[in-house]
Specification:
eleven-stranded mixed beta sheet; Pseudouridine synthase; single chain; alpha+beta; about 15% helix
């Protein structure tokens, strides 16, 4: 599906944020499916009458089964500055996850060292540093329960591949639909119940606070948690 005005969460001359649908890929991969960055380029080119195409820089990524806020840069200067913002951890990322098992401790901090197998695309957590590992840290808190499902808010300090998915799994709380990391079955839609809820940072050019918020997907399940 193409990107339309209703998908735009934030836009100015420097940045554009999209409400990513679960199942969309951010950049081209071996599937050759049309990636989100190309869809956004087409949207900008059509909206601003740019027959030669539009510049778009990928600032960060979300896994294909994940929905929510994703940010792109519209200029090379904004891309360079936002890359520095993410590298220096000057951005606050907030995610919501739905799990079936209640965490034994309602809030806390998780620290692991993660190793990704490039052949299987599976990440393995370790409690101490091992060869080839990357340190991963997040904080979480239980927001509530609805119909036997539990809503957890997650604030990752680092941005490692599959980090939230694998770290919540270590609590015995695999994300609903994420059979790669311990949930008993996958989703027929190819999605998991992990949503990038909010992105907060200081604008790299205007130096003003930016707070970008994505509503929950409307799929007959997720939206029941919107009031939490």
């Amino acid at each position: 599906m193409p990107v339309t005005d209703k998908d735009i969460l934030f836009e100015d001359n420097h940045l554009i944020a999209i409400s990513k649908r679960a199942g969309d890929i951010v950049q081209v991969d071996e599937t050759k499916d049309e990636p989100l960055d190309e869809m956004v380029k087409k949207y900008i080119a059509a909206k601003y009458n740019k027959p030669g195409g539009a510049f778009l820089g990928v600032v960060h990524r979300l896994d294909r089964p994940v929905s929510g806020v994703i940010l792109f840069a519209k200029t090379s200067k904004a891309l360079e500055r936002m890359n520095a913002v993410f590298k220096n951890r000057e951005v606050k990322k907030t995610y919501w996850a739905i799990v079936r098992n209640k965490p034994a401790v309602p809030s806390g901090t998780l620290v692991h060292w993660l190793v990704k197998n490039p052949k299987t695309n599976v990440v393995t957590p370790h409690l101490k540093e091992v060869e080839g590992s990357q340190r991963a840290e997040l904080s979480y808190r239980l927001l509530g329960e609805l119909g036997g499902y539990y809503l957890i808010e997650v604030d990752p300090l680092t941005g490692r591949s599959h980090q939230i998915r694998v770290q919540l799994s270590t609590l015995g709380c695999p994300i609903v639909g994420d059979n790669k990391y311990g949930y008993p079955r996958g989703s027929r839609k190819g999605s998991i119940c992990l949503h990038a809820r909010r992105l907060q940072f200081l604008h790299p050019v205007k130096k003003e606070p930016v707070n970008i918020f994505a509503k929950l997907p409307v799929d007959g399940f997720w939206e029941r948690f919107e009031g939490f």
